[in-house]
Amino acid sequence: MKEKNTSRRDFIKKSLIGAAAFTIVPRYVLGGKGFLAPSDHLTKGVIGVGSMGRGHFGYAGTKTVAICDVDTRHLALAQQALGGGIKEHSDFRELIQNPEVDIVHIATPPHWHGIMAVEAARSGKDIWCEKPMTRTIGEGKKVKEAVAQHGNIFRLNTWFRFDANFYGMNVPVKKIKKLVDTGMLGWPLKVTISKHTGFDWKFYWVGKEHLPVEQVPRELDYEMWLGPAPYKPYSTHRVHTTFRGYWDYDGGGLGDMGQHYLDPVQYFLGKDGESPVKIEVDAPQQHYDAVGTWRKITYTYADGCQIILDGAGTEEGQAYIEGPKGKLYKGFVSDIPDLERKLAQYPEPAPQVTDFVEACRTRQKFALNEQNGYYSATLVNLGLAALRLNRTLQFDSTKQEFVNDEAANRLINQPMRGPWTI
């Protein structure tokens, strides 16, 4: 009997240890496919409830049940917007571990995106992440791997590949994709993204080189705001809406708008699993801390396709897409005669899953996910690497690393301030 009791205690002990090793899983897993929360909504926790985070409380089919921020003013404004009574956290890890949360929405500065997305994936949550997906190529790889390992549904929050008119083109990207797929423009193609084709690079997102050292506001946990970023003395311009002007947290106008502008190009060029092999830059030497402006960044793919980012606005009169057989200009104007009639004879592009709630319920991959989103985020981060080093870079699309360039490869996996790791 004593031996039986000892064996039973050992079994229970081992079972408890094993149970503790399991990660938390969303409630739809526990309830089976098609499970709905009692409210018929999937529940959501939002990390970062500044103006961006507060703007996404009302997404159809979801209910916000938890919020997190390192600024108590943001939390108060979020409670007011939601009518109060919402569970709030100052540490994102508590929100992620909350068993009542199905979806984690990450609306923080980009230097936090990778850590938070990986942590959410490990905890069995589905993930809605603001752009850019990650601040570095290495962090993007980690997110892609974590989501693949844990089976989460991931959405990157730039929608132009599947919804709305695409800036100066004034048509949905689906129509541009259809045109490219017909071959009427020929191949390879050159895409120019500039103010003349309808895209603003927002060069007001630049940093200041001589920031005053200021007192940290009482409502802000500045140490947690910095997180994995190097310690820098607090200055108002370094945080919140103007953080985009500093390399430690983002990448200026390219970091802010790059994935909005480049992800649809990647889609209609058919480059969702491929990176350019050469990145050229024409720009002033950048400051080590503050992001500056640039004149031109050129991406070239192995097949000769190019994407040109015209920051100086020198490409006046340039077509948005130029091929050996034709051109497409701002407003979907083309030099191809009778384009609309010809286009109508071709099939539409393949359908995409564009309802995130439905994707979560049915476990279908969302249209812009951790895989294709990784490649368009990498486009942004390749441009930023060339800009910071101020020289042409060669990139191995298969290995996802720079060719014979130690300095550039150090930018793929940048060090994090302890205790943070990914």
TrEMBL record:
Pfam families on file: GFO_IDH_MocA (PF01408), GFO_IDH_MocA_C2 (PF19051)
Keywords of this entry: Oxidoreductase
InterPro entries listed in its UniProt record: Gfo/Idh/MocA-like_OxRdtase_N, Gfo/Idh/MocA_oxidrdct_glycsds, Gfo/Idh/MocA_OxRdtase_bact_C, NAD(P)-bd_dom_sf, TAT_signal_bac_arc
Domain of life: Bacteria
Oxidoreductase as UniProt keyword: yes
Stretches assigned to the Gfo/Idh/MocA-like oxidoreductase bacterial type C-terminal domain: 169-422
Transmembrane regions listed in the UniProt entry: none
UniProt domain Gfo/Idh/MocA-like oxidoreductase N-terminal: residue ranges: 45-156
Annotated NCBIfam families: TAT_signal_seq
Name of the protein: Gfo/Idh/MocA family oxidoreductase
Record organism: Sphingobacterium suaedae
